[in-house]
Amino acid sequence: MSSEIRMHRNPDIGTERSRDPNEVINGFAFSYLRLCRGHGYALTSSLEPQPGDWILGERIPDDMRLATDPPGTLQAGEIVVPSLTRLVHLLRQEAYSVVIDCYPDDFACMCFNEDSFSLANVVSRNPEEAAMRSLLFILSEKKAQEAAAEQ
Questions:
Q1: 9-13, 70-74, 87-91, range with the lowest pLDDT
Q2: Which helix (H) or strand (E) covers residue 124, if one does?
Q3: Last residue of some domain: 41, 65, 82?
Q4: Taking the CB of residue 119, how many other CB atoms lie within 10 A of it?
Q5: What pTM was computed for the model?
Q6: pLDDT the model gives residue 22
Q7: How far is it, in rounded angstroms, from Cα 130 to Cα 98?
Q8: Residue 108: helix, strand or coil by DSSP?
Q9: Exposure check for the chain: N or C terminus, fewer CB within 10 A?
Q10: pLDDT per position as a tens digit, 81-118
Q11: Residue 64 buriedness (CB in 10 A; 0-12 / 13-18 / 19+)
């Protein structure tokens, strides 16, 4: 992922908040899709689609399509909606150990370095959202440490 900051504004993101966050669209909770289009945009818009990935355009769920083989490239404004498997793979590139835990009403994602130091501990409505929030937290902390080291 490049150090360039990619900003995206979705004019419908405010109106989408009135939807049930637990609504499931193509196997993903609406709250997770909104996270991918919002705070996760820099990451999800830079991922290369793989066969079987869901690609999301500007509007949820109208602009959702499944990547085929070959998957092609993302069009302007499109993002890849990472599966839990892909999120764990991305987390493993940043953390030595990744734990996804299930509770009665929510999920947790805990990430640790080689010395068992906690890098992230996030609780959310679904496992994908917990993993994505952990990944975004770890990446933002990493960027902050790199920026501080440059000064």
A1: 9-13
A2: strand 118-124
A3: 82
A4: 19
A5: 0.84
A6: 86
A7: 11
A8: strand
A9: C
A10: 999 999 999 999 999 999 999 988 899 999 999 999 99
A11: middle
